[in-house]
Amino acid sequence: MPRAIYKRVLLKLSGEAFSGQADYGIDPSILTGIASQIKRVKDMGVDIAIVVGGGNIWRGAQAESQGMDRVTADYIGMLATVINALALQDALEKEGVVTRTQSAIGINQVAEPYIRRRAIRHLEKGRTLIFAGGTGNPYMTTDTAASLRAIEIGAEVILMAKNNVDGIYSADPAKHPNATRFEKLTYMEALNLRLEVMDATALSLCLENKLPIIVFNLAAPRSIEKAVLGETIGTLVSAE
């Protein structure tokens, strides 16, 4: 069994990753692939917690631009993350991975409330955790939730799995074919260059707590496993 370089990680899955090549919804084959990778990571002895986005179901910014109240749009987005979390939980349990979902918004019939000490205890017992509902607050992204939860549970790294983007580029590679990909960046470089790593609040939290971030393409073969094993993949954002 390969040896992982991390003991505890926080995996951030964008909502778009769940839809695969589609524009909307959840692709069951994508869920199966994610779950099988997580199972192999668990078999390496790694504690893993997951924060999910909801962009495959709901786009709050788009709804706001069409006249919806921002707070209402954000709360709908939080509910979308619960849908993704439950779908991923089901896929993980089919792989034999014992999983618990905790939500930052009250939805007790389907998920536990987020309680930090309980979350850490689940990890200590070898369970995989899924965090839904973002931070539970409007105006906060799931990137911020990922940074916050990673710090709270003592994760050693944030693994940011992107949908068909293999790292951080100097510009949007879809619009600028000559954009260059960074292998390594410091937090300040990412902030000063206004690169789309994560939102500024989330990145600042990582900077203050010296929490490294690996940005990589989820669709690449064994991408999550390679990141946990310390293989060169995507872009590393750290203090150095």
Element layout with pairings:
Blueprint: E1 8-13, H1 15-19, H2 28-43, E2 47-52, H3 60-65, H4 70-94, E3 99-103, E4 112-113, H5 116-124, E5 128-132, H6 142-153, E6 157-162, E7 168-169, E8 181-182, E9 184-186, H7 187-192, H8 200-208, E10 213-217, H9 223-229, E11 235-238
Parallel strand pairs: 1-2, 1-6, 2-5, 3-4, 3-5, 6-10, 9-11
Antiparallel strand pairs: 7-8, 10-11
Account of the protein in words:
Helix content is 40%, strand content 19%. It has 240 residues and is α/β, with parallel strands linked by helices. The protein has a domain at 8-149: Carbamate kinase (3-Layer(aba) Sandwich). The strands form two sheets. It has a nine-stranded mixed beta sheet with strand order 4-3-5-2-1-6-10-11-9, sandwiched between helices. A two-stranded antiparallel ribbon has the order 7-8. Helix 2 (28-43) packs across helix 4, helix 2 packs parallel to helix 9 (223-229) and helix 6 (142-153) runs parallel beside helix 8 (200-208). The longest helix has 25 residues, at 70-94.
CATH architecture of the domain at 8-149: 3-Layer(aba) Sandwich
The CATH homologous superfamily name of the domain at 8-149 equals: Acetylglutamate kinase-like
Poorly predicted regions are none
Q: Please give the radius of gyration in angstroms.
A: 17 Å
Rounded mean pLDDT score: 92
Structural class: alpha/beta
Number of DSSP strand runs:
11
CATH topology of the domain at 8-149: Carbamate kinase
